[in-house]
Amino acid sequence: MRNKYLNHCFTTFTAVYLALALNAQGIDIADKENRENITSQAKDVDYAMPADIMDEMETPKLTIDFEHILHNFDKLHHNNNNNNNNSYTTFKSANFSAFDNKGRHACERRCQANQPLTCHYRLVVHHYQALTAECESCFNNDGACPKQQCIYADGVYTPIVAINQMLPGPTISVCVDDTVVVDVINYLAEPISLHWHGMSMYRTPEMDGAPFVTQYPIQPAEAYRYQFNAERAGSLYYHSHVGLQRSMGVGGGFIIRQPVESDRQSYLYDYDLPEHTLLLQDYVYGQDVNRVRNILINGKGRNHVSNLSDRDPRHRYERLQVARGNRYRFRIIYNGVFNCPIEFSVENHRMLMISTDGNDIVPVLADSFFMAAGERFDFVLQANQQSRSYWIKVRGYESCAKENLYQGAILTYQSGPTRALPQQPMMEASICDNGSEEYFILGDYEDQLKKFVSLSQSGCGRADFKATNVATVGLSSLEQVPWTRDTAFFTHYTLLGSRVYGGAADVAYQIDDITYKSSKISLLQTNGLYNEIGVFCNRSMLSAKGQNCETKSCICTNVVRLPAYRALEIVLVNNNNEPTPVHLHGYTFRLVGQNALGSVVDEKQVKDLDRRGLLQRSTDDFPIQKDTVQVPPLGYAIVRFYSSNPGYWMYHSALDSQSSRGMIGVYKIGEDHQIKEVPPRLRC
N or C end of the chain: smaller count of CB under 10 Å? Predict the structure, then answer.
């Protein structure tokens, strides 16, 4: 019986692989001619294309027949289900047709208490290109782009990795307590996995998406079903957690709404519209994943290789509409991969900040706010200005500032000209011209802002002008901490660093002086079945062996054991000269400390500083809740949480440029018997 089943699995896999391979070979013979035509048109509209991108245009485009792919999967898995009732291998097309005539999924609805749904989505991850031959009719009509399956992006031809022929991928919108079912089909030539950034996965740790930690990656020509409960409301997102796929475009929004009666912020706004979710991403050209070339807003924006002005109508900007007199909730997600913190603002509008990383905060007014990779912010915008168009502005810092990168979207009032461009250039307006006596900046980049405009009264030439910076650690949650002030915390110190090999370009990033190397087995799936000493390492284990990682290169699977059901405190120390956003899987934590040290320190020095009271902690009973925290350069951040979710949870730099080079670690929280036993799942 087992041999019969395995033979069926092999036959099914072979058929699927051949179906995908044959489909991938469906190369459009006339595509080269079409690309030459589209290139000619691009030159006519003054869209410059870098030479390295032009070279790659010789690569033939894959013509992707999605109906053919999905039909094969449905047929194969229907046959499979006649022999095996494993629900994880069911891919019925009927489950994925719940869209209305506006293209909205049935689960994108007004949430009602005690009315959960099972929400099915299908995501096909595949190679694609921006500005291909399908975009021919888009040059003069941006409304034609979606109909032609064109990803226009910023008007520069470049290979990308798309989801369902979209960049970014489709936004998944559900209600709290819904069951989320996402079937992912890997149409790439390499493995993938999807991480649900901001989900704790209390009941389903195997759905976290960390490769070789909580799951085995999805192999080429393979499909995998993620199924979990939407356990909390908030602005989240999903993205690839393998290699540099995220920098090529594998990601999308994930919004979990809640009934009005359970939303403590609902009285602050009138509308929470799906089209007011903005996913920001830094963008690369070609395969050069070491250089950021742009910032996109919902996959659109101007490029910085042409000489066109910001107001040139040939740019494709994301457009959002509001009606005068109403209040709107906006959800901003930053799927960044480079060291490019950004400043976000809306021309002539002040924002009421109400949430960060999907967690409610005490409302704070801001004229602009800063975001690091992996962070999310929600704000309420009151439409109280003249009925015309305004810039939504994003300015990049650090690596993005070196390339002078910025981006915009357009906010339009319904009673005004719907296609009109804003009256002013995008980035020339000064904060001194906001018409207010005080300018409020939210975030940890006041020093960066000073490089571009003076925040002093003399710098603005206005005696009544004042700029106020509110640091992230200064924000307050609406929820009180679940511990008392006399709670004894188990404190763990961890150091973020780097090591240069040979030339300056050859940099390995580290946690506790260890460069992470992925295990060959999935730690959660094989929990309790292996000798830990032979599978993973940590600072203590290597020290016991006489290895000094401060002087010797240590490369291994860095796993630190921490107790379950305890009040934990993590002190993150950044020994690099660049800021590092750190994301923790499996938990939402409280940020209780964040400051600069000014110099490189080792573990002993950090503990000594802490013993002397030089690592400051907030005593507030309502510290902000987050899952991604910015650790200042040569500084520290202190987070606290109760370890009620045993398992293997990855923590890492949210920058792919650092994590892909080794700045990853894993917390094994709890003993083997406390960690969920993952149900067996045979794959075909």
Answer: N
